[in-house]
Amino acid sequence: xxxxxxxTAGVSTKPPLSSPTRPPLPSTGVRPRPDGTILEARNxxxxxxxxxxxxxxxxxxxxxxxxxxxxxxxxxxGSGKSTLLQLLGGLDRxxxxxxxxxxxxxxxxxxxxxxxxxxxxxxxxFQFFNLIPLLDVYENVALPFTIAGTDPRRGEAAARIxxxxxxxxxxxxxxxxxDQLSAGEQQRVALARALVMEPAIxxxxxxxxNLDYATGGEILDELWRSCDELGQTIVLVTHDARAAAHADRxxxxxxxxxxxxxxxxxxxxxxxxxxxxxxAQLGL
Length: 284
Description:
The chain has about 280 residues and is an alpha/beta fold. Helix content is about 30%, strand content about 25%. The longest helix has 18 residues, at about 215-230.
């Protein structure tokens, strides 16, 4: 959920890092979850004033996300999942409770320090692509390096940009502007831009909501690949079981609370039927 267009939302400005070499993973079966908590919410509440009454969007939510894990927050419109994602990413402050990202308590930081942490540690992908129309694909993806004062066409920066362009299948489209791309290609650019600085965590709010079924599936597969192949930690907000089925673990959000937790594991098929069956058992 976005309000207006912020071209630099979630744009990290930390120095580029080399991607670690990882051994090949097995092609089938359920893989164990990574260890080590990178993100934690502690008894989060969020209250809004609506007219002459208070509305509790979150009512005491606690959760942990492990490094390298893919977690989905699933629930209907108005359940509180997007509000929760905004608090986890430091885009908003809780009424009470704490958010800890990679050892730092976001909710206690000044606005300046919270912005610094957000740019260094998080990447964001929204339903709307928020690309800069006058920049081509390469320049949009390179924007975090440009903001940081790093030449994006040399050294590690250029290598990392090439890596994420390959990940999202945009090699050969580098010189195209956003108006020359399909909606799915524009979302791939947004995803590459969010990943290019190797953020500690990627937060995705309904990233397929503006795409058709097939194209949305391709974006979800690319999110999964960034987690599985690059070790990217992801928190995805969605109302769609098909999207949530890409996650290792699904947290079902309703009426401002986490109503259930469903373990799926790291699966190569991402079949939604086990999740749909489990949701049916819960009456959801």
